[in-house]
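Hi R.,

Here's the chain you asked about this morning:
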Amino acid sequence: MESRELAIQLARALDAKKARDIRIIRVHDLTTVTDYFVIATGTSTTHVAALADEADFQLGRQGVNVLRTEGHEGKRWILLDYGSVIVHVFTQEAHDFYDLEHLWADGEPMPANEWMKPADATEPQPEASRQQQ
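And the predicted structure, written out as tokens:
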């Protein structure tokens, strides 16, 4: 899976578990460490852990395994390293303190409309079926 698509899939997995302030930032031109950061905020340490676990679970189902994780002990900032994409899941306090968006402000943010599924994302209906409704 390409790094852009991987970042999108991770953001969608986090969104499905009600993460807040989800951001995808392309940092490919700024660092050799990774291509994208996916940054999200949970409402509590329990939520942060659940978000990280869900992202890992959903990508694992697609055959993509996390290379390394950090922060599960404290659950204030959990990092999931997929090589070309690094996921940061924070509590609000940790997010405000570390402010990665500001630190990586020279990165290229991906607008949410490029990765977020519409709220009513359903299979397209044939034209005849739509007219009958």
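Helices lie at 3-16, 45-61, 92-98, 100-103, 127-132.

Let me know if you need anything else.
M.
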